[in-house]
Please model this.
Amino acid sequence: MTAEVKSAAPGGAAPGTNELALALERRIGKRSAAVIEKHLGITTVGGLLNYFPRRYMNRGELTPISEVPLDEEVTLLARVVSSSTRTMRARKGTLTDVVVTDDAGTLKVSFFNAYRAKAELLPGRRALFSGRISRYNGALGLTNPDYQLLDEDPDLAGEDPEKLAAMPIPVYPATAKLTSWSIHNVVKTLLDTADLAALPDPLPADVAAREKFLPVADSYRLIHTPETPADWQRARDRFRYQEALVLQSALARRRAQLAAEEATARRPAADGLLAAFDRQLPFTLTAGQSAVGKTLAAELARDSPMNRLLQGEVGSGKTIVALRAMLQVVDAGGQAALLAPTEVLAAQHFESIRRTLGPLSRDGLLGGFGADAVQVTLLTGSMPTAARKQAMLDAASGTAGIVIGTHALLSDNVSFYDLGLIVVDEQHRFGVEQRDVLRSKASKPPHLLVMTATPIPRTVAMTVFGDLETSVLDELPAGRAPITTHVVGLAEHPAWATRVWTRSREEVDAGHQVYVVCPKIGSDDDGDFSPGEAGPADTDLEDSGARELASVTGVVELLRDEPALAGVPVAPLHGRQDPVLKSETMASFTANQTKLLVSTTVIEVGVDVHNATLMVILDADRFGISQLHQLRGRVGRGGLPGTCLLVTTLEPGHPSRRRLDAVAATTDGFELSQEDLKLRREGDILGASQSGGRSTLKLLRVLEHEDVIARARQDAWTVVGGDPSLGSHPALAAAIDDYLNPEKEAFLERG
Ligand code: ADP
Ligand code: MG
Model:
């Protein structure tokens, strides 16, 4: 690399040392800089250079007017058909109506007192218009828009007409006050005044050569002022790759930093609890479970911390894998903590792990010390004070070998004697910071295993969990019965509303149990969605007022009078209940006393009742794809075939029913995750899972650019592998800092 960048010490450096971090006003003047800061919030040269056009218009083609979204800030290219000006009667002044066309339809553009528009927007002229299109009396209109005549740009005077027709017009994300072309003009000034030759290139030279990328300076020129579509495409490819490389390098660096830490090795014992546990296991591990088990065993035995993500379909048996790892750590004298996202799930894990361990577990009150059993302790925020204090004491003294809990485990007054392994279940509810808080509870960094059942496409895993090594359990244990899913459309088949309950009755009569899931708790609340969870797509929200959604309390009342369910024990379960009541309800359902459980999504993850065979999801269109997939994974567990009914009152053609159809069409979590990504805005996915205020991706689309991400990841691994501190890649290191901390203040030079 030829370009060299010195670090941008706040307030310190000499002129020209870091062009990207330079205050914008030093290049484009105070006035323009103030405008850009006010409307775009951008204060540095780098910020504006990296404010890329969102798309490019073809100078030779008019914008299809009927495809332009209403009530959004838009930029369109149209030709004037006619223009007329009249004096208004109701108020003083004139009204100029200009009719413009895209050759297919027309749009009425109205100006009040606009002498310039009257004089300039003559029939036949082409112009860019910027504003919000609205519909008035059935006709599309635009009022007092900003406009720019297309064929009179002084910069382009004398250009060859053919070349001009092919020249793309960059369209910037504009605001109501700042048009795309004003932004373009400021950027053009910046390209002339900035010291582009001094711009650092974050790409390693060999990578840039292999990919045949243009130098940074040329790329900035071409992405902002292309002469042909190929120009901006080449430039965009570079910056897209650069974005992927910076992101992957940030993750690789974090991973290298984590791996360089020193951990306590927890070597397997020849004849400890794990060996005893394997001997008493009532089934054989799947090939995947054994393979992942071997990997974990080896990594736990090392003196650098394991940082691993275990991905596996709902029901693939992740808990056993985690439990075996925990036993290895306990055998080696350490403690293990299992962090669950909800109290219900923590309690379930506690029960089922104790059950699975059988005589190998003891609880706090019984049994003495000894290597023949491990104390399993539950620690949640809602436990009675005395019990919680005892659990904390057991964690701190090391009496408890396995501590299971919710985020209560993260609180300051919880400490461990020797925490060797942290298992985080269902990661999508836990952020990086929470992982780090738990890590801080051990004197040396503990080993970490993150489990997630949310189907994640490969590239999202690479992007969101890129600092973790990944293992996948891709088969279900033998004897797992298939789940059949049906969409029950009440709009076209109103009679099916009762049919759902007769179907439930049949299950109960056959000795089985039923889950009924509702989007809301009561008739007057906003639901039981946990924060950060993927909710329904925005498009649905508009009709939420129009229909009354199924609620837990409402449905329980309804079922009391439902003849088909006469005599069937029904119980409600939701997040606002008293914790004691919640665990009693769950216990009664697990014991097959309650036959039909009406709940919110509290049962979404992890809950494991083998006898449940039917899941009815009411107003299923209110849930996201991965949520529905998680939910139905609660049935079909005990070798009994499962059925899931997605009940909806939406019309068959409604866009939100596509989600339901997708879920009904496949039980392949990875296929669903792709579908999910397509139907949702990407930012939501990364936004919900990425913590730490990272900027959202600009040019990279995790689905579309899988190969870019994969190549960049490879390169990032190579670079960081050979230079973990990035000492000889200063430009890349600076780009990573910028990426991780985008709000960093521009530095203003002194003097
Ligand atoms: P998930 O991956 O969704 O967390 P669990 O760990 O809850 O899945 O496992 C689901 C069920 O499958 C549990 O009841 C568990 O005991 C059972 N199970 C796990 N591994 C096997 C196996 N190898 N053979 C048979 N059943 C298994
Ligand atoms: Mg689980």
User: Anything to note?
Assistant: Residues 283, 285-286, 289, 312, 314-320, 453, 477, 606, 608, 637 surround adenosine-5'-diphosphate (ligand 1) (CB under 6 Å). Residues 229-260 form the longest helix (32 residues). The radius of gyration is 31 Å. The chain has four domains: 1-54+172-199, 55-170, 273-300+317-452, 483-666.
